[in-house]
UniProtKB/TrEMBL annotation:
Source organism of the structure: Fredinandcohnia quinoae
Positions contributing to Zn(2+) binding: 251, 254, 353, 412
Family note: Belongs to the histidinol dehydrogenase family.
Protein name: Histidinol dehydrogenase
Reported function: Catalyzes the sequential NAD-dependent oxidations of L-histidinol to L-histidinaldehyde and then to L-histidine.
């Protein structure tokens, strides 16, 4: 890994979410086709991109039973335990509607309502992601969403990975469709003969999925435009080089554009981690992907002290941050920007990916400066409640009318004044 002294500016920005002009044209064409031709367009693109012809996109009970037969009982139990942890964490995020009665009789409040229908995109391709099922579905369920639709691309045999199906069944998803890519996003947004449209689409995917989500935004809501994964490790010379290297590579194996960064003021640790990354790379089954990621987006930044390390971390605003220092909790309060913060030696990032409970759908590409992990609030909407009393309108009506005329909106003022005349 490249070792560099900290400069004035560091960044995790990778400008790939806009896609190429050709990719944008392809996505627009697919969306238009699905809107116009529905299921026939889905069949065409599934044949073209996934190499399989499907007579029915919906996953049936027999396929789910077949999936269970392929998974060890111990792993099924682990999936259920992880689901319970995730549900427990997210249940603590639930907010209630509220009403406030003022002294003059006015009633003000906020009504929180779950979305009617949510679409969950589960990526396929380079790996299977049952954890994505749990992380996207469970907070929607906790929020009270009644209809949850899952889409995921099939393999060339027309199958979905067994672990994905078992995870979906474990949390009670009963609408699962074998369709992926931009065509799946279009189907969720606009509906087809088979797939009824939804109100919001969540879940990561490749560049075509990201572009499609961006294109349908406005007609439906989306969670975020997720970029490649990233990890930043903030460490001092009490940390273990082999463990840091393993954590960095745990993100590098996701994607060739994943970013893995160590920030430390220990040159000794920096050199040891660099050597250890090179050693461990040779042992990885996904070596080619991880090697490309480390080569292009792997860095070790050496700072002058721990304070500068913290500054660098806040400037990077990483998706995942591990703090591996002698007193890691002392630094948590100084971290302003990070999607998820893993504190201490035993809180390695995969703990959060799979089992601990907090959501692993996190802001990437520096967007942790203004974004949060996927949470229960993402699956609800808020309505304001205003019940103005007669006394309140008498007391404040003239002020409201004056304010309206300041903006040149006389009809607004008249709507107030017509009531005041009769009072």
């Amino acid at each position: 890994m490249r070792i560099e002294r900290v400069s004035n500016t560091v960044s995790l920005k990778r400008n790939i979410e806009s896609g190429t002009e050709e990719q944008q044209k392809v996505v627009l064409s697919i969306i238009s086709d699905v809107r116009e031709n529905g299921d026939s367009a889905l069949t065409f693109y599934t044949e073209k991109f996934d190499g399989v012809t499907l007579n029915d996109f919906k996953v049936g009970i027999a396929e789910i039973k077949e999936a269970y037969a392929k998974i060890d009982e111990s792993l099924i139990q682990t999936i259920h335990e992880a689901a319970n942890n995730i549900r427990d964490f997210h249940s603590r995020q639930v907010k209630q509607s509220w009403i406030d009665l003022k002294n003059d009789g006015t009633i003000l409040g906020q009504k929180i309502t779950p979305l009617d229908a949510v679409g969950v995109y589960v990526p396929g391709g380079k790996a299977a992601y049952p954890s994505s099922v749990l992380m996207n579905v469970i907070p929607a369920q906790v929020a009270g969403v009644e209809r949850i639709v899952m889409v995921t691309p099939p393999d060339r045999d027309g199958k979905i990975p067994a672990g994905v199906l078992v995870a979906a069944d474990a949390v009670g998803v009963d609408e699962i469709y074998k369709v992926g890519g931009a065509q799946a996003i279009a189907a969720l947004a606009y509906g087809t003969e088979t797939i009824k449209g939804v109100d919001k689409i969540v879940g990561p995917g490749n560049i075509y999925v990201a572009l499609a989500k961006r294109e349908v935004f406005g007609h439906v809501a989306i969670d975020m435009i997720a970029g490649p994964s990233e990890i930043v490790v903030l460490a001092d010379d009490t940390a273990y080089a082999n463990e840091i290297a393993a954590d960095l590579l745990s993100q590098a194996e996701h994607d060739e554009r994943a970013a893995s960064i160590l920030v430390t003021h220990s040159i000794r640790l920096a050199e040891e981690v660099s050597q250890e990354v090179d050693r461990q790379l040779q042992l990885l089954p996904r070596r080619e992907i991880a090697e490309a990621s480390i080569s292009e987006f792997g860095f070790i930044y050496v700072s002058k002290d721990i304070e500068e390390s913290v500054r660098v971390v806040n400037e990077l605003a990483p998706e995942h941050l591990e703090i591996l220092t002698q007193e890691p909790m002392e630094l948590v309060g100084k971290i302003k920007h990070a999607g998820a913060i893993f504190v201490g030696r035993y809180s390695t990032e995969p703990v959060g990916d799979y089992f601990a409970g907090p959501n692993h759908v996190l802001p990437t590409n520096g967007t942790a400066r203004f974004s949060s992990p996927l949470n229960v609030d993402d699956f609800t909407k808020k309505s304001s409640i205003i019940s103005y009393s007669k006394q309140a309108l008498l007391d404040n009506g003239a002020k409201i009318a004056e304010f309206a005329r300041l903006e040149g909106l006389d009809a607004h003022a008249i709507a107030i004044e017509e009531r005041l005349k009769s009072m």
